[in-house]
Amino acid sequence: MSKSFYVVHLVDGTYELFRHFYGLRRFTKGKDRPYGAVVGVLQTVLQIIETGDRVKGSASRGLMLGVATDHVIESFRNRLWADYKTGAGIERALLTQFHPLEEALAAMGVVVWPMIELEADDALASAAHIASKDKRVQKVAIWTPDKDLAQCVRGTRVVQIDGRRTIIRDAAGIREKFGVSPQLIPDLLALVGDAADGYPGIPGIGAKTAAQLLNCHGPIENFPPDVLGKQRDLALLFKNLATLRTDAPLFKKVETLRWRGATSAFAAWAERMDAPRLLERCEKAAGR
Asked: Which residue segment(s) compose the domain that 119 sits in?
């Protein structure tokens, strides 16, 4: 009897919603459809369901899937750094699609993690950590180009996928792109800053210098006192902001992530979104 291996797919729902919302803008001339971005995310997730068990280097006999979203934009990090990213400036037409996305995904039979105190990135990191403990999991694929998630990559088993550019990065790919190993990504971001998340990094330290320092000394905690001087505490604060939490209790058994088809509620969602093709694809995928 052949042994089963799982491929676990973890999708950044917030990133996908932004991507599809602004991608549609190129075709709708500013007239946003109420569920336009939601439909786009569901199409992306369905594509993973349809082809995800054929991720390069895997021989899966079971596809597991989870999507993380930011149910609210703020998190515990806003209490640590006043300028950390908030929901300010997010267009209402986009903001009103967050909760419908969560509901539509659940109706489609997909496990969803709507995050409140933590962020969607923390959910993805936690899910990757939990899944990695299961020896039957052959591959964990984290679907997002977000550099924060590069810290979760481990060897060739936990990889990061930029679906838009069809790039798969393992640990060697992360080192090639950033100049440091995945474990040092929080330190790198602390030093160079992350404009998207709202912290500036340490003045005078660029990406190349940061990588050199980290490869020479290891994590920031190991830096000689004279390297950062009075900026050391600030660098450690930024590292705390950049470090994704891996202890969110999202699930206990990987099997709970198995996609078994859409629920009976999805037909109504497909009609509401004027997307009958989604229902047809779900039924076809579930029947395979």
From this structure: 6-144+247-277
